[in-house]
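Aim 2 progress update. The chain analyzed this quarter is reproduced below.
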Amino acid sequence: MKIEICVGTLEAARIVSKQAIDRIETCIALEQGGLTPSKAMVSWIHNTFHLEQHALIRVRAGGFVYNYDEIVVMRDQILELKDSGITGLVVGALTKDFKLNLEAVETWKRTAPNLDFTFHRAFDNITDWQTAMDQLIKLGFKRILTSGSDLTVAHGMHRLKELVSYANGRIEIMAGGGVKEELIPELKATGVNAIHFSGTSKVTVESETAFEETLLLPDENKLTAILAAIQG
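Predicted C-alpha cells:
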C-alpha cells in the first residue's frame, strides 16, 4: 500500500522527508482545502528533498465548478509547474449538475501529457461515480483520491470497497479525508491502493493580534502514529 502525505508548508516537507513514504502532494492553504503552490515552493522541495512530488492545481477555495477564466488560469498554472521536477498533478472539476467536467480535465491533461494525473476529492461530489470513473480511465488518469463519496473516510468505508471493486485494477483508488490512526485497519481492509493524509493539527498563530489565524500545521506525533499504523 502506497503512502502519500499532503504537504502544505516547507516545514511539513522537511518533516516528511525523514519518513518512509512514497510521495507527497504539495499545496498551500490547507485550511481552505488546499490551493496551488508556487513554482518556487515546488522547485525548492524538489531540489532539497528529491521526493516524488505531485502538485495540486486549484485556483481558489469554494467548490469545483469553474468558469472559463479559471480553467484557463489553472491550465497556465500547469504550464508553469510541469517542468519544476514534479511527477504528477492533482486536479478536479465538476459541472453544475455534479458530473465530471470533461472539457476542463481534458484541457489540463493535454497541457502536461507526460505527468501522472490524480483526480482529487471533487470526485466525492459526483452523483454517477461509475460513469465518472470510466471517463477518468479513458482520459488516462492514474488515480482517484476519495473519501468514499462522503465527508470523511470513516463514513465512506462501504463505498471505498465498491470503488476498489469497480476499478478492478484499471485505476488506483487512494483513500483520503479524515484519516486517523484508529481507522487504518478498516481502511486497509477496503483494498485501497494508497492512503493520503496530512498529519496536521489546528494551531492558532499571532494570537490576540490583527493577524491571528488558525492554521493546519504539521504535527509530527500524529504523522508518525498514522505511519506506524499503516506500516505495522
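The first strand starts at residue 2 and ends at 7. Helices lie at 10-16, 39-49, 68-81, 102-111, 129-139, 157-167, 184-190, 220-231. These observations will guide the mutagenesis experiments scheduled for the next reporting period.
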